[in-house]
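Entry for the shared binder. Reason: the reviewer on the internal report wants the predicted structure included alongside the sequence.
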Amino acid sequence: MLRNYFKVALRNLTNNKLYSVLNIGGLAVGISVCMLIMVYVAYDWSYDRFHKNAGRIFYPGATIKIVGDEGFYDGMSYVSGPILKSADPGIESFLRVNAMTQSKIIENVAAPERKFTERKLMLADSNFFAFFSFALLKGDPNTVLSRPFTMVITQGAAQKYFGDADPIGRTLQYDGKWLFEITGVAANPPSNSSIDFDFVGSSASAKSMHEAEDDSTSATVGPGRFVTYLLLRDAGHTGALTRLMASLRKDSHDKFGFDYSLRALVHLHNDSDSPTNVKYRKIFPLVAGLILLLALINYMSLATARSAIRAKEIGVRKILGADRGNIVKQFYIESGMYGLISFLLALLLFGALRPAFYRLLQVQINETFLHSPYVVFIFSALLVLTIAISGSYPSLVLSSFKPVKVLYGRLGKQKVSAFIRRLFTVLQFTISVALIICSIVINRQIYFFRHTDTGNFIQPVLLAILIAIPLARALMNEWLRGFAYRMSLGPWIFAVAGLAALALAVATVGVQAVKAATANPVESLRSAG
């Protein structure tokens, strides 16, 4: 029986080429766009979650208020980690990281021509590769950073400075002063890691290099240069640890009055971004769902529009003994075939559009992420959802036809089916128009802020003021005429008001233009960080 269903589905696919192309093509485009958006959403959500203990890693910091603005500073003193660890048994271990804020010159001592300016440098405790789940290709994760002036470099850095030679045991000069021995080679950090590096030096070198000189005299928990990551035994222990930090701050007579709190590693990517960008990223799944819904509605509309053509086939099948369940199975198999072909075509479109889409969002997603459980789950769910929804309405509608009405040509009286088709059409166009309008509005808004010339803006403002001043003077004089005591409305009053309005308009647009000109419009809409 199933073999017969597949034969019928294949025959309908090949005999109605235009219908098949429209249905499969439309569904494939919708699925591919949904894939692109959902892969980005999954990528953005997956930041830092690849670490083994990601759910139990937190980092403390201070909330700082300056002139009414509030910010979170995650730098802590060098001794903050050990103090917190000894004061709270709920902390399993800690890790201090000092990411260099300025570029440094790195040089291969044996090959001075290999000398480059680098930005992705940091000093970290010896347990860096045991604490995090970054892959260490060469070296022991427990000892590679145990001695002062030892360093781990990434694959990319190893190729850059040493070519195909083994870098272990070789030396790199840091900032023209300090010599570091290469004790390990790490894989390049995944693109969905908030912690990015090419060089990781031992934090035991910090005091000799004066990188911790600001913290050297501090014996209390407080602000400093080191981001301190805490691995808790229980993720729910954050409340007690926050209270502990508050009590330590009071005991140390903190003159700054900072409010210390904990933040989760898995939220580091969003915490470092603006709230507006985070809100935009939350809209993306809704947009992906609407686009997929459009594609499915289009498929179901085309399928039910051919109901008159398939009606006699269904009538004959029912007369020959087929029940409604058999008809439902047949149409679900047809929808499954269309859905599977559309899904395979969508994968090809996804691969072709992916580079341009990544450039638009200014993100670099590793190929390995496409094989992660997140993407596999999303693609599997899309396939199942597409087949389930696309086959549901056509199979239920077409299988409900009565053989007598079909063979006597009374199919046109199916009012419910016609109403649902009209509803699908209205819904489809409504969603399409809404998405198009939103896209145009956002595009023009960004273009306006980035390209508006304040000189062109002043012209309509001046024209509005020239029209408003005489009109305002006439109306005010008419209104004050009934008062026994009234002030004289001299021209200077309106001149000053006009100049003030012009200055306010220019200042407002000028500030917004400067903000928009220095901002990346894609950053206002995406996921990155």
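Summary line for the report: Residues 482-487, 517-529 have pLDDT under 50 and may be disordered.
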